[in-house]
Design goal:
By secondary structure, the chain is an alpha/beta fold. It is built from nine helices and six strands, in the order ααβαβαβαββαβααα. It has a six-stranded parallel β-sheet, sandwiched between helices. Helix 1 crosses helix 8 and helix 3 packs parallel to helix 7. The longest helix has 17 residues. The two termini are about 15 Å apart. InterPro entries: Alpha/beta_knot_MTases (IPR029028), SpoU_MeTrfase (IPR001537), TrmH (IPR033671), tRNA_m1G_MTases_N (IPR029026).
Length: about 220
């Protein structure tokens, strides 16, 4: 349950422009689609995918670090880690189980399956979009558990794209179509309040000291 008094206290510290910007961005945020990346060795690729999620309004990124434990490359992410929720998993099975429990269908992005071209993808169902490395692609475990496959149409000799490029193309296309649809894709009122609080805290320097002072003066 959100402490609305605490939220109001923090937002009173922010400028009006900042608060209005939060509300505008949150109007375009969605959890209807979520993105998952599997064991991406190059740190900058995961960071670039996160940046694409932020730019195109995907609120959650799921990172599977079964083989390669990596921190987010802040230089590439360019602050996106402050605005996108990162869910970390140390196994493929844990990630799949979590996303299925939330009602997502598992969609494997791959150039080697003919199930569905990007422009034909049904956007009505909540979907978790899985991306793997350019060299190895997605693991057999994900492919075996996928509810569907998604492919970017390509007409050149090259058979695959870098993961960050593929993610940007797919996320931009699907979120653009989503916003033009009648699907209820927006965050709930409660989810918006949670993000307003998180983003306010991420925007205020020395937040721990300010938070401690607030609760000292306003004991629960």
């Amino acid at each position: 349950m959100i402490d609305l008094d605490y939220l109001a206290f923090l937002e009173n510290i922010l400028t009006d422009n900042r608060k209005e910007r939060f509300l505008h961005v949150l109007e375009n945020r969605t959890k209807h689609f979520t993105v998952a990346v599997e064991d991406v060795y190059q740190m900058h690729n995961t960071s670039a995918v996160m940046r694409s999620c932020e730019v195109f309004g995907i609120q959650e990124l799921n990172v599977i670090e079964q083989r390669f434990g990596k921190r987010i490359d802040k230089e590439i992410a360019l602050g996106a880690q402050k605005w996108v929720d990162i869910n970390r998993f140390d196994s493929v099975s844990g990630c799949l189980s979590d996303l299925k429990s939330k009602g997502y269908q598992i969609i494997a992005t791959t150039p080697h399956e003919q199930d569905c071209m990007l422009e034909d993808f049904d956007i009505s169902k909540p979907s978790a979009l899985f991306f793997g490395t350019e060299k190895e692609g997605l693991s057999k475990e994900i492919m075996d558990n996928a509810d569907g496959f998604l492919k970017i149409p390509m007409v050149g000799f090259t058979e695959s794209l870098n993961i960050s490029v593929s993610a940007a193309i797919i996320i931009q296309d699907l979120t653009n179509r989503l916003r033009r649809s009648d699907i209820k894709w927006q965050l709930s009122d409660e989810e918006i309040l949670v993000k307003r609080l998180d983003w306010a805290k991420n925007s205020i320097k020395d937040i721990k000291r300010i938070e401690a002072r607030y609760y000292q003066e306003n004991p629960r």
